[in-house]
Design goal:
Layout (H helix, E strand, L loop, with lengths): L12 E2 L2 H11 L6 E5 L7 H7 L3 E5 L2 H10 L5 E5 L14 E6 L5 H9 L5 E9 H8 L9 H7 L2 E9 L4 E2 L6 E8 L10 H13 L5 H4 L9 H4 L12 H13 L12
Parallel strand pairs: 2-3, 2-5, 3-4, 5-6
Antiparallel strand pairs: 1-8, 6-9, 7-9
Helix pairs in contact: 7-10
Length: about 270
């Protein structure tokens, strides 16, 4: 029986073999790589990945699809984790991990933030996402798509948009164009904030009113900042600051003891 795509899981199954081949070429897996596929669905990527790998781990929330995968592939070659990727402990899967997937659009941003916590264990990530999300991920300061997602991810990854994927490459076709992005964690020597929690809270607050000058958007935090020392004009807006400037801003506020937010995603 043909599987009916389930809206609650955001299922759009990749059916274009040319796109599948392009993704596998981009990943270029070696036989002994520790690869994890999120959302294997009907095996469009799973099958060609297994041709190149000794074994593969997949995370599938749909129990019917998980059962199909178990019946189709031997357990010594395919480990099926049945569950929500947002709740998976990726640190338990070995490493360094290479993570791939056609991510459901409805959880793409939360999942990207969840994976931030495991970046130290990841070699690279190749994801297909809504093009609008990918454009936000790779946007530069001053561009309209530049925002919180851009800053938080660029503080931890080098990201490259690889290619677009048209709606007709899926069944059922989504109403949007998709894109494939490559994410490579930055090295330990990368610039990093003194407090990841303060950094996350400052970025969140700065972009909450992105059209306002930072001096106004940061409210009572603004007088605590030596704007000249960090090289940011007090008239600047959040969308014009680089990642390095956000780090300098968060360090200044952390030193001033201005921010005590709840735990934030690891960066």
């Amino acid at each position: 029986m043909a599987h009916q795509a389930r809206k609650r899981f955001g299922q759009h199954f990749l059916v274009d073999e040319a796109v599948t081949d392009a993704i596998v070429r981009a990943v270029a897996p070696a036989r002994d790589d520790a690869v994890v596929e999120i959302g294997p669905g009907l095996s469009a990527l799973t099958a060609p990945l297994l041709q190149a790998l000794d074994c593969l781990t997949v995370v599938e929330i749909d129990r019917d699809l998980a059962a199909r995968l178990r019946s189709r592939y031997p357990s010594e070659r395919l480990q099926v984790i049945e569950g929500d990727a947002l709740k998976v402990d990726f640190s338990a899967l070995g490493g360094p991990l290479r993570i791939v997937g056609n991510l459901p659009y409805n959880i793409s941003s939360p999942l990207l933030f969840h994976l931030l916590s495991y970046a130290d264990r990841v070699l690279d990530q190749h994801f297909m996402l809504q093009r609008e999300v990918v454009d936000r991920m790779v946007a530069e300061p001053g561009q309209g798509d530049y925002g919180r997602l851009s800053v938080m991810l660029q503080a931890r990854y080098r990201m490259d948009k690889l290619f677009d994927v048209q709606p007709e490459s899926f069944d059922p076709p989504p109403r949007v164009v998709s894109a494939v992005v490559r994410m490579r964690p930055l090295p330990a020597s990368r610039p990093r904030p003194r407090s990841k929690q303060v950094f996350a809270q400052v970025v969140l607050r700065a972009f909450a009113q992105r059209r306002k000058m930072l001096r106004r958007g940061l409210g009572h935090w603004a007088p605590l900042v030596d704007w000249d020392a960090i090289g940011v004009a007090p008239t600047a807006r959040a969308e014009t600051l680089s990642v390095a400037q956000f780090i300098a801003l968060s360090d200044a506020l952390q030193e001033a003891g201005a921010v005590a937010p709840p735990k934030a995603p690891e960066i």
